[in-house]
Write a structure and sequence with these properties.
It is built from no helices and 13 strands. With 191 residues, it is mainly beta. It has one domain: OPCA outer membrane adhesin/invasin (Lipocalin, Beta Barrel), CATH 2.40.128. It is elongated and about 60 Å long.
């Protein structure tokens, strides 16, 4: 289980609209391990947020999100060498937009590629750095018009840590200060 908040700068291809998207989300995931590969399935809720389009703020209602991902542990960690993981994810989301009497629909598709480097200390503390690049369209249907756009920066830099606890529990926290911004945290059970 994980939850978080993110903020993105969007640019729409109508030539007029830039927007700031802010929202919270909660998601449940399940990882399937096969040697150096991990398949991740996720589904969750897009929580309330806002879409500020050129000074016109729209509220975002609750919505859905889902993703599927594949990770590859390229380099196993040793005493002197950190671990390196490459990943790819395909995700989508949908929600409603509202402003006064205007109602709309907002959809996003995201193709994401990333790399992480980290090191485990004392058998339980594993800090890491990650860089992700992404792209994909967003579709905003408002006033009977469909506006197509995308993220303005297409990059996310993150620092985080995983805490490996007894009883097969782990917690994680991640912050993303540049490009697509956000803070995320969650917990997991290894079985």
């Amino acid at each position: 289980m994980a939850g978080g908040y993110s903020r993105s700068q969007l640019i729409f291809f109508d030539g007029e609209t830039e927007a700031t998207l802010e929202h919270g989300s909660v998601v449940a995931t399940n990882d399937f391990y096969a040697g150096k590969f991990t398949v991740t399935l996720a589904a969750g809720a897009f929580l309330n947020g806002s879409l500020d389009a050129g000074g016109a703020p729209y509220e975002l209602g609750p919505g859905w999100l889902t993703s599927v991902g594949l990770s590859w542990r390229v380099l196993n960690e040793t005493t002197d060498i950190p671990y390196v993981v490459l990943s790819t994810t395909l995700g989508g989301l949908g929600t409603r937009t509202m402003r006064n009497d205007e109602r709309g629909d907002y959809y996003g598709i995201d193709f994401r590629f990333g790399g992480s480097v980290g090191k485990t200390f004392a058998g339980w503390f594993s800090p890491y750095a990650a860089l992700r690049v992404f792209g994909g369209p967003v579709l905003w249907v408002v006033n009977d018009e469909t506006i197509v756009g995308t993220d303005k920066f297409h990059v996310q830099g993150s620092l985080g840590a995983v805490f490996l606890l007894p009883q097969s529990l782990d917690f994680f926290f991640e912050g993303s200060p540049g490009g697509e911004q956000g803070v995320f945290g969650g917990f997991g059970v290894r079985y």
